[in-house]
Amino acid sequence: MIPRHQIVIFSLLLLASIIMGSVLWHLRERAHQRLLAGQNSAPTQAPEVAPDEQATLMVASDADDSLSPRNLTLPLPQNSESRARAILGKLLDLYAAPDSSHPVPGGATSIAQVFLLPVTGSVAGRPDASAGQSSGDSAPALAVVNFTAAFASSHPSGLEAESLTLLSICATLRANLPQVEQVRFLVDGQQRPTLAGHADLTRTYLTTATVPIDMAHP
Question: Which of 36, 84, 112, 210 has the fewest CB atoms nearer than 10 Å to its CB?
Answer without folding.
Answer: 210
